[in-house]
Amino acid sequence: MSIDRKAAIAAYKERKTVAGIYVVRCAASGQAWVGQAPNLETIQNRIWFSLRQGSHTSRSLQAAWSAHGEAGLTFGECERLDEETAYVRNALLKERLLHWRAELKAEAI
Asked: What domain range includes position 41?
């Protein structure tokens, strides 16, 4: 293994991830779904992949995808959390998820 590859792997493992709350909206139906993620930068790809496969755990979100397609849904960040410790971050994520679900009148993902 080359030194460059080892350095790249080490840098990848040490990168900072940003946790937070996100929203998926369907313009056609007016529906919204809110979720929490330990890494906001990767969650959209994960959700879109499961929707493309027809295997997303939220039936209403999967139904909206099936009815309106990828172009009918949008992904957005509601809030980023900078908390370092996992315990505090997880508690804060739960609290903020409830806030945003109420604020946007959204379903949970």
From this structure: 17-108
What secondary structure, in 3-state letters, does the chain show?
CCHHHHHHHHHHHHCCCCEEEEEEEECCCCCEEEEEECCHHHHHHHHHHHHHHCCCCCHHHHHHHHHHCHHHEEEEEEEEECCCCHHHHHHHHHHHHHHHHHHHCCEEC
Whether residue 5 is contained in a domain is answered as no
- Report the predicted TM-score, pTM, of the whole model to 2 decimal places: 0.84
How many Cα atoms sit within 13 Å of 78 on the Cβ side? 23
Residue 92, domain member (yes or no): yes
Tally of structural domains, the chain: 1
Tokens of 57: 């755990």
Tens digits of residue pLDDT in 44-101: 999 999 999 999 999 999 999 999 999 999 999 999 998 778 888 899 999 999 999 9
Whether residue 10 lies inside any domain: the answer is: no
